[in-house]
Design a protein that fits this description.
The chain contains 5 helices and no strands. By secondary structure, it is mainly α. The longest helix is centred in the middle third of the chain and has 53 residues. It is rod-shaped, with a radius of gyration of 33 Å.
Length: 132
Amino acid sequence: MPDTEKVIQLSRIFHVTTDYLLLDIDEAPQSAAPAENNRETEQRAAEKRMKRQSMRMHFGWFLLIFGVISLSATLVGAGLYAQTLTGWRTNLGRYGTALFDSWILALFIVSAALTLCGILILIREYIFIGKE
């Protein structure tokens, strides 16, 4: 008969009960269940990472498309406003005055920032795709 302490140590090492070691009982080792749980946990974590990355990519595309559309609308609006001006106050002419010497400049800056943010998010996600 082996020493009790050694049987306990062996049961801990192999993740089985002492009955399994001492008696001739057919039982599955307990390590199989934690291995399955680990695989399932890793799979769920990978799915979460993929979902988060997909959401970031969709958000980046949204910002890029919305930014380009609003940037275009801002530039067209500045052109339409420039046609109503009779004089200009900048060296850039009527269009420069409409764009840079009016409230349209704020819309231009916001639109350009949205476009830039969308581009940066997409670059980051496409460069680091699958590296998380």
